[in-house]
Amino acid sequence: MAPEPPLLTMSGITKSFPGVRALDGVDLDVQAGEVHCLLGQNGAGKSTLIKVLAGAHQPDDGTIGWRGAPVTLKSPIAAMRLGIATIYQELDLVEGLSVAENVHLGHEPTSAGFVVRGKAARASTAALLKRLGHPEIDPARLVGELSAAQQQIVSMARALSHDVRLIVMDEPSAALDPDEVDNLFRIVGDLTTEGVAVVYISHRLEEIRRIGDRVTVLKDGRAVAGGLPAKSTPTSEVVALMTGRNVEYVFPDRPSTRPPGEPVLTVQGLSREGEFESLDLDLRPGEIVGLAGLVGSGRSEILETIYGARKPTAGRISVDGRPLRPGSVRAAVRAGLGLAPEERKAQALLMLESVTRNVSVSSMSRFAHGGWIDRRAERGAARAATRELSLRPDNPSVPVRTLSGGNQQKAVLARWLLRGCRVLLLDEPTRGVDVGARAELYAVIRRLADEGLAVLLVSSEVPEVLGLADRVLVLREGRVVHTAPAQELDEHRVLDLVMEGTS
Amino acid sequence: MTQPASPPRPGETLKTSPPDGIASWRTLAARADVRTLSLLGVLAALIVIGGITKPDEFLDTRNLQLVLTQASVIGVVTVGMTFVITSGGIDLSVGAIVALSSVWATTVATQEYGFAGVLFTAVLVGVGCGLVNGLLIAYGAMVPFIATLAMLASARGLALQITDGKTQIVTIDGILKLGERDSYVLGIPPLVLVFAVVTVIGWLILNRTTFGRRTVAVGGNAEAARLAGIDVRRQRLYLYLLSGLCCGIAAFLLIILSGSGQNTNGNLYELDAIAAAIIGGTLLSGGRGTITGSVLGVLIFTTITNIFALNNLQSDVQQIAKGAIIVAAVLVQRRTASTT
After folding, report:
1. From the list A346, A372, A397, which residue is nearest B24 (CB)?
2. What distance in Å separates the CA atoms of residue B296 and residue B281, rounded to the nearest whole number?
3. Which among A309, A351, A397 is the nearest to B227, CB-wise?
4. Do B209 and A368 touch (CB under 8 A)?
5. Tens digits of residue pLDDT in B142-188
6. Distance between CA A448 and CA A338 in Å, rounded?
7. Which domains are seen in chain A, by residue range?
8. How much is the ipTM here?
């Protein structure tokens, strides 16, 4: 690297959210003209870090230097003025506006200060698109009519429409075909020869090897390694850095003998186009099966399809040997399935309501005579269910929004416990749950399994899947690439499988 | 007020809730109290104003009977509207449905079937319109605003077509008699009794039945309700049916009140009903609804209208006052909501 001062230096960046320390003294330096890769598991702090860099979050502590001088990025506009552009994973384009209008949104070329010069905007957009290797995109077309890959290009054109010196790309290849990925890499190469720096986030190690110059690894909100050579650092070392843990989770013991039993849930050849393919799965009472895989590997989609919230394009689901009507949540609930979804607040909880009502919502008819709710019986049953899970506070009349993340999750579990469900589908059960409360939640899940529930667990935290599940299915891009008892796998092996697909 | 008050009385609280539930019950009761009490306070202030400005006219029994009678028609509509808004929806067609029901039920042909024929037709037309709304919204995936806006236009048009713009006089004695003083029960007009019954039933349905729970759940978080196993679409269908039913009942009350059916009936009822529900404390975004609040909202609006009329103030002033009250009520509620 050149001896001149780095383009960007972030040092000691700290950022806390209620209950979580997302960044804990992170250092990052980026040179002009390099591709600097950020690597880390989900929740390691990558998103928070790039939001700080984009001016969307203000750090609690730490300093940011830009070309040798200290700066504060107090808003996204401030970051943009310095020449920092961010391309987020979820594209932030306005579908009802044209390509050119999107590219120039907020800095339209104008006459007399307010009349938009449409022709000029289209011409400069066309030039940008040509530079990005996509001259076929018409600047006058509506963004909503473009493919996902083309929208990505538009997003990039927007970044380049500013006088940009640093571009942050958050998993830019996730939505792209291999051809398009090649084009993306060519663009990245062109940018860096012009002296633009790129901060590149990806889960795919092979991509990082192809275009990366240096790698910074984040784990639990800290940079555990900064500026490693991207091409020569061995995979095993990178994986070890990503996985080495400060916090040891306590997992409950597995029962020594497994009741054989008939499978309660059978899934055969289940597919959903573009999401996952030909999934086979047996789930027995008392068993916890884990699905391990990266974001985008189809984990949540599988759970939601089994639960009937999405319609499969092929395959069969049966409960106790009886086929389940596909695409019907009500049929699934009636057959004894229960889902604790990933987005608890958006998908499971009635935030304005009490714990009791959140717990009883799926079993209301049990407390009702002709539609008339026996509130005493309801409260009693909700209390019994929440007590069994040691939900705190021990008072189901409090609004559910006052509960901590772990206790909110228990409220969702209590809902299915009360319903008498037999197959529990858990999607990221410890998302947003304090580290300290996790062990308790793990124990609860294991106990429910010991009492005869069948549990299908999805988690992006590999140790969680390995520690809690009896059997693990490893997913990569919507396909099961490996199945094994949890004891026979370790974190390295699983990460190798999900990231490189080599075995 | 004839319907049960929503905050539990102290004795009830202690009796039905276990010891560790008291604290939270108290906070819940306190919060409901603030809202209900502030509405009661506004109503009391209005009565004082009315009593001071026109002591003889305003506090006259006949005038109070008139206020309550006027509140009854829009009140019944507001009860249905409260359910729809609680579920996260909106029904802009209520006024038009009232108009269509009232004219369909008062055609010469319908009146041949007598009292029962008129009542049955009014209710059936209301439910029928609600069914169309519900099907379009629940199963046609139409936005409630648009579907009920379309119903507003169509139902009014149909009402005009039926009447040709003429007032249809009711000739059935049984109906006309219900509007006369002889039919008052202990000084209470029958219309007010119907309103009271609808209110009590509405309160019970919203607060004590699975139907009410599902309504709140769908409005609070439709996705969560769906994933909890609730048939969200069927619930939505029922809710617009319920609103239509209330409109049919209100149409019948209006027929009694005016002794006729007119295609201009129920003009802007949708705005009055929405406004009453919102100042009562029902969340426009859904997930929380209060029948008690809605009824107080209706009474406040009707009382204002009455006081203004007695003081010979024009309706333009009334409209301005109503607008100011809506803004003030929502601002106050946002303050109390953010502090709890």
Report:
1. A397
2. 10
3. A309
4. yes
5. 999 999 999 999 999 999 999 999 999 999 999 999 988 888 889 89
6. 13
7. 8-243 (3.40.50.300), 262-336+422-503 (3.40.50.300), 353-421 (no CATH)
8. 0.81
